[in-house]
Write a structure and sequence with these properties.
By secondary structure, the protein is of the alpha+beta class. The chain has 3 domains: 81 residues, no CATH class; 138 residues, Distorted Sandwich (Glucose Permease (Domain IIA)), CATH 2.70.70; 43 residues, LysM domain (Membrane-bound Lytic Murein Transglycosylase D, Chain A), CATH 3.10.350.10. Helices cover 23% and strands 25% of the residues. A hairpin with a 3-residue loop joins strand 8 and strand 9. The termini are far apart. The structure holds zinc ion. Zinc ion (ZN) binds next to loops.
C-alpha cells in the first residue's frame, strides 16, 4: 500500500476546507452546503483539467498549493478521477474491471480492524427479495464504530436508507461504508487510521434494531466483505485481495436470480387466496416458496413471491 505523504495530503484537504471557508457566495461554485471542490472542478473527469481548475480557484483565493501532488494524495484518485462528498455511490458510472488488480490490504500488520466487535446477523447477498450489499453486525446503540482501514473520509451525512452514514476511501481504492449510526464523529476530508472512531452505532434510516451495516466497494461496485474479512476471528483473510471480473460474478448471479423471481406487494384487503387467484397459482405454492403458513397474517407492503 502506498502510504500517504501526510503533509501533502493535508495541503490538498486544507485547500478544500479553505475554499469552503473563504468563498463568500457558495452559489458561484455550486452546492447547497459548502463546496465539493474536487467534484465541482472535475466536470469532465479529466485530471489535467481538474488540476488547472483547482490551481485557478486556489490562486483566486490566495492559497498556495502544489496541485499536482495534492491531487495524487486523494486516495484512489488515479482510479476514480473524482472526489465526491455528496453522492454515496454512483451506480450509473460503476466501471467494469477488466484486468486483475492486486490490492494491498495490509503492509504494517495493523492496517485492519473490525469496525465493531459484534457477531454477524445478516450476510451479503439476496434477502427478502432484495440484494443486501453488506454485512450486518450486532451492536448496541452508542457503541463506537471504527474505520476498518486507513484512509480519508469521503462521505459523512444522513441518508433515508442508510441513516447516518460514513464512507471512507482507502489508499488501495477500496471504499468502506458504515450505516445506521446514531452519531457521526467525522467530516469529509478527515484522515483516519484503522481503528479510529467514525461514529456511534445506532438504528437510523431503514433499520430494524441497532446494528452496523458494513459495505466494501470498489469503483462503486459492491464486494462481499466476507471475501476479504474473516468476520468470526476479526482478521483479514489475506494481506492482498485480487479484484477481477469474477469478484463481482456471485453478486451478478444472485441479482439475476432475484430478477427472475416475481413479487406481489400486499395492499389493503389482499388475502393469500386473492393473490393466488390473481397470479394463477395456489395458496399452498405461495406458502411454500415464501416459507409462511396459510394462516399467516399479511402486512401492508409485504412482498409475497408468487412464481
Ligand atoms: Zn445491512
Amino acid at each position: 500500500m502506498r502510504k500517504p505523504r501526510t503533509a501533502l495530503l493535508l495541503t490538498a484537504l486544507s485547500l478544500g476546507l479553505a475554499v469552503r471557508a473563504q468563498v463568500p457566495d457558495t452559489a458561484s461554485f455550486g452546492g447547497p452546503d459548502g463546496i465539493d471542490i474536487f467534484e465541482e472542478l472535475t466536470p469532465d473527469e479529466n485530471p489535467e483539467h481538474a488540476r488547472l481548475e483547482i490551481s485557478r480557484a486556489a490562486k483566486a483565493l490566495g492559497i498556495l498549493c502544489d496541485v499536482g501532488d495534492s491531487l495524487a494524495m486523494i486516495p484512489g484518485y488515479d482510479l476514480y478521477c473524482h472526489w465526491n462528498t455528496e453522492t454515496i455511490f454512483d451506480r450509473e458510472h460503476a466501471r467494469a474491471v477488466h484486468d486483475t488488480l492486486c490490492l494491498d490490504l495490509s503492509v504494517t500488520g495493523d492496517d485492519f480492524m473490525m469496525p465493531c466487535p459484534g457477531h454477524l446477523t445478516s450476510p451479503f447477498g439476496p434477502r427478502r427479495g432484495r440484494m443486501h450489499y453488506g454485512l450486518d453486525l450486532k451492536l448496541q446503540t452508542g457503541d463506537p464504530v471504527i474505520s476498518a482501514f486507513p484512509g480519508v473520509v469521503r462521505i459523512s451525512k444522513y441518508n433515508k436508507s442508510y441513516g447516518h452514514v460514513v464512507v471512507v476511501r482507502h489508499h488501495n481504492g477500496l471504499e468502506t461504508l458504515y450505516a445506521h449510526l446514531s452519531k457521526r464523529l467525522v467530516e469529509p476530508g478527515h484522515i483516519v487510521e484503522a481503528g479510529d472512531t467514525l461514529g456511534k452505532g445506532g438504528n437510523t434510516g431503514r433499520s430494524y434494531g441497532s446494528h452496523l451495516h458494513f459495505e466494501v466497494r470498489f469503483l462503486d461496485q459492491p464486494i462481499d466483505p466476507s471475501l476479504i474479512v474473516d468476520v468470526e476471528n476479526g482478521t483479514l483473510k489475506a494481506k492482498t485481495f485480487d479484484i477481477h471480473k469474477g469478484t463481482f460474478a456471485t453478486m451478478a448471479a444472485a441479482k439475476a436470480q432475484l430478477g427472475a423471481r416475481k413479487y406481489h406487494v400486499v395492499r389493503s384487503g389482499d388475502t393469500l387466496s386473492a393473490i393466488a387467484r390473481k397470479y394463477r397459482t395456489s395458496v399452498s405454492a405461495i406458502c411454500r416458496i415464501n416459507g409462511i403458513s396459510q394462516r399467516s397474517v399479511l402486512r401492508l407492503g409485504q412482498r409475497v413471491r408468487y412464481n
